[in-house]
Amino acid sequence: MSDIPTHEGAPAPLRIAIFTDSFFPELGGIQDSIMASARELGRRGVAVLILAPAASPRDFSRAGLAVAELEMGENVTIHRLSALAAPGSTGQSRLALPWARTAGVLAAFRPDVIHTQTFLGAGLAARAAARRIGVPLLGTNHWAVSGFSLYAPLAPEAVTRVACRAVARFYNHCAWTSVPSRAALAEMRAHGFRGAAAVISNPIDTERFHPASPEERARLKQELGLSSASVVYAGRLAREKHVDVLIRALPVLRARLPQAMLVLAGRGTARAGLEALARELGVADAVRFTGMLDHAALARLFQAADAFALASTSESQGMALLQAMSTGLPVVAVRQGPLVEYVPPGTGALTTPGDAAEIAACLAALLLDPRVRQRAGEAASRWAAQFGVAPVTDMMQAAYARAVSRSISQTPDAEWSKSCA
User: What DSSP string describes 144-172?
Assistant: First the structure.
C-alpha cells in the first residue's frame, strides 16, 4: 500500500504533502492526530512533507518546550510557512499566510498528492499549490464550526451559517474529504458540501493509552494524589468546552461522595474564570488544574482516575475522550452530535448539554458502584481499540492510492466507508 507503480512497472514510494495550520508546538488533538499519522506513514516507507506555520519562541515557551524542531523520522520532513499569530484559547494559534512560498519545496519534493488538514491559511495555500502543479487535493475537516457560534459578537446563527457555507465551499475543491464523524459530515452536507467523502476517525495511540493493572493503578493514584472518586477532563480550557458545567456539577456530586475531585488537564484563556467559579462554589480545594500534560503524563493521569467527563458542544470527534476510553475510563459526556457516535451504550452515559445536575447523577452512578464502573471501563477500552494509529493509517493510505489512480472522485460516500473500514 505504500508504493505506487511507475511506468516501468517498478514500485516508487508514495509522496504526500500535508498542509496544516494546527501543528507543533501548539498542543491539541488535531496536532496529535497529524503527527501520529505522519510518523506511521514514514515508518511504512511513505515520504511525507508537512507544511505548517512557523512558530515563535513564545509558542514553545507556552507549551513548556525548548525551541527545537520536532523529530518525525527519516521519511518525514517539516517545512515551516510564513505565519501570523491568531486568536485562540491555547495562546499558541498560528495561521499560515495563504500566499506563503511553497513552489520551491514542492518542486524538490514532487508530491503525488496534497492533503490539507485545514480550510484556513495553509488550506488556501494547499489548494493553490495543487492547482499549480496538477496533483490531487485531498482534505480533512477537523472542525465542528457551529460549535464556535458563541464567539460571534452579533447574530451568532447568521455568522454560523456563513462560516459553515464557506467551509463547505472550500472542501468542494477537494477530490475527496475525510471527516471524523457522521455528524460533522452531515453539517457540511447541510451547508452545500457536495464532494466525495468518508468518515474516518483521527488516530489515537492505543499502545500508550492502555489500561493499567489494579496494582499499577493504585500506585499511580497514590503518586498523583488522586482520591477514590476522581473525575478527569482533558482539553482546552475554553468557552466552547463548557468546563464550567463540570465545576458546577462537582458540589452536587460531593453531596453524595465527599471525596470526589475534578482534575482539569489543559490550558486556555478560560482558566482564570474557572478558578473563580470553583472558589465561588466552595470546591476550589477539590478542583486541580494540571496545566498542559505531555502524552506520557496524560496517560498516567487517565490510568489513575476513575471517570472521564466532557461537557463540550464543539467536538467534531473528541480525541481526549477516545484516549481516556482507550485507557479504560468510563465516560460521562453530553448528547451532542459526534459524542453520540463515540460513546456507545455500555461505555458510560450521555447527558443533556449544560445540565450539571444530570452530569453529577451519572458520575455518581459510576463512582458508587465499582462493578458498573469496571464493566463500562472495559467496554470503553475495547471500543477505542479500533481507532489505533495502524488501522486509521490503513484507511488514509487507501485514500492516497485511489487519488493517485485518479478514481477517487467517482467513489460515493457509502462505497468509501466500506472500502476504508
Answer: -GGGGGGG-SS-HHHHHHHHHHHHHHHHT
